[in-house]
Specification:
single chain, Aminopeptidase, 6-stranded mixed sheet, 29% helix, 23% strand
Length: 143
């Protein structure tokens, strides 16, 4: 879990380092429901996204100094899971693809900086990082 200084309208989480599956699902659902673009997701699609990312340990939840959730990211380092139309042309193995960055209370630039710091600190291969567009038709390099 990482901390940032952005305000959040969501309730405080007591112990952010020891979240159960159901607590992580609840916090993620609250973040998604607060985001303009993602709040339109169907409940089953949301559950499948969060369930898969928690089980594969590809979900990062960020909290502010008050232990309130501020944003989340779902990522993948296995680019073979993606369609050829959106594959990233890179010779490096150190590529990370963020499927979703949901930040209803933070700016995208601030999120990207925290994500880069988090990846470096936790030895996640990330020399290059890309974010998948919401409509999943293109990718954009973020570092």
């Amino acid at each position: 879990m990482m901390y940032n200084t952005h305000k959040s309208l969501l309730p405080t989480v007591k112990d952010v380092n020891e979240l159960s599956f159901w607590q992580a699902l609840g916090v993620s659902s609250m973040l998604v429901s607060c985001h303009v673009d993602y709040s339109k997701m169907m409940v089953l699609d949301l559950f499948e996204l969060i369930n898969k990312s928690i089980k594969n340990q590809e979900l990062i939840l960020f909290f502010n100094h008050e232990n309130k959730p501020t944003f989340m990211a779902v990522y993948s380092t296995l680019l073979s899971d993606w369609d050829a139309s959106i594959m990233i042309k890179s010779n490096s193995d150190d590529v990370i693809l963020f499927e979703n960055i949901i930040s209803p209370f933070s700016s995208p630039i601030h999120c990207y900086r925290f994500l880069k710091f988090y990846c470096q600190k936790n030895s996640i291969p990330s020399m290059q990082a890309y974010v998948l567009a919401l409509e999943k038709k293109s990718v954009r390099k973020i570092w």
